[in-house]
Amino acid sequence: MILFFFILQFTLTVMLGLITETNSIYRNLSMRTTHTSEQIVREFLLTVRSGKNPDKARDFMAGKVLAHQMNSENPQTVERTPQNYAAHVKEFVEMYGQFEFEITELIAQENKVYARWKQTGKHLTEIDGYSPTGLPLTEIASAVYRLENGKIVEYWIQIDRAGFDKQLQQANKN
Q1: For the sheet containing 76-80, what is the strand order?
Q2: pLDDT tens for residues 67-83?
Q3: Which one of 44, 75, 168, 174 has the largest count of C-beta atoms within 10 Å of its C-beta?
């Protein structure tokens, strides 16, 4: 009988050890996934969104990406492809020149990554009916990116449009 309890205790101890080890492996895998997601989004922002190499969008984005434009008066979802996203970024380069792009916050949790950035360029083309001034323009924006299989598949973006409009108005008063 004592031998039976000893074997039972030993078996339970081994099983609990395996469960603990399995949980530890899962946590480490989850941390690696988070790190990978964070690295993918960081590289995407610094390579593609920065305007340095928009054509590399295909390396970071799935074939179709849902882009949720989080405007309080008119939220909408746009379907993006790597090709039309690259064209979108190239439009920024035309409008602002080779702008400065700085990631100011990056937080990752599993397959979602929050990013906030500051983009500073020059007002080179007509924007929202405002004639070009050549003066500096700064955009503050943030997005949450969702990844699957190492690619961006969806994101939710918010831009400080009121602050941007005030800059355009002020520049056109001068």
Answers
A1: 76-80, 61-69, 151-159, 136-148, 112-122, 100-109
A2: 999 988 889 999 999 99
A3: 44
